[in-house]
């Protein structure tokens, strides 16, 4: 997260989880727990590798997800929610409820 100061809490929240892909990435981690990059990509077949990589880096920088790299052959990277990321579950559950009621 940059050093930008926010006056509105909604603006701040959207700066962290806003956009098309971030809530979906977080929700995949809520539902499935720890996932490898390829598992996230496969579950979101319309996201490009570049966009997924960018979104994961931003979520990691904002303290929402952990990136755990294993130096083995073949190398693997796993992603999971941080404690801060877990605090977003109620927001996403509300979005799911609203979507189910209004789809």
Characteristic terms for this protein:
103 residues, alpha+beta, Arc Repressor Mutant, subunit A, three-stranded antiparallel beta sheet, 6 helices, 56% helix, 14% strand
Characterise the protein shown here.
The chain has 103 residues and is α+β, with helices and mostly antiparallel strands. Helices cover 56% and strands 14% of the residues. A hairpin with a 5-residue loop joins β2 and β3. The model has no long low-confidence stretch (mean pLDDT 93). It has a single domain, classed as Orthogonal Bundle (Arc Repressor Mutant, subunit A). The protein is globular. 14% of the residues are buried. The chain has a 3-stranded antiparallel beta sheet with strand order 1-3-2.
Task: Summarize it.
By secondary structure, the protein is an alpha+beta fold.
List the helices and strands in order.
HHEHHEEHH
User: Stretches where pLDDT falls below 50 for ≥5 residues?
Assistant: none
| Highest CATH level, the class | Mainly Alpha
Question: CATH H level: which superfamily?
Answer: Winged helix-like DNA-binding domain superfamily/Winged helix DNA-binding domain
Number of helices: 6
The portion of residues assigned to helices is: 55-70%
Strand segment tally: 3
Distance between the termini: 33 Å
Q: Report strand order across the widest sheet.
A: 1-3-2
| Percent of residues in beta strands | 5-15%
Blueprint (SSEs and pairs):
Blueprint: H1 9-17, H2 22-32, E1 35-36, H3 37-43, H4 49-61, E2 65-70, E3 76-81, H5 83-86, H6 89-102
Antiparallel strand pairs: 1-3, 2-3
């Amino acid at each position: 997260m940059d050093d930008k100061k926010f006056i509105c809490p909604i603006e701040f929240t959207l700066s962290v989880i806003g956009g098309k892909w971030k809530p979906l990435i977080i929700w995949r981690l809520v539902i499935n727990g720890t996932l490898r990059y390829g598992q996230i990509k496969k579950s979101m077949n319309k996201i490009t590798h570049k966009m997924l990589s960018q979104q994961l880096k931003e979520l990691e920088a904002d303290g929402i997800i952990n990136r755990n790299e294993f130096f083995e052959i073949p190398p693997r990277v796993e992603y999971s929610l941080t404690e801060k990321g877990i605090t977003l579950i109620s927001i996403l559950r509300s979005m799911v409820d609203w979507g189910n009621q209004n789809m």
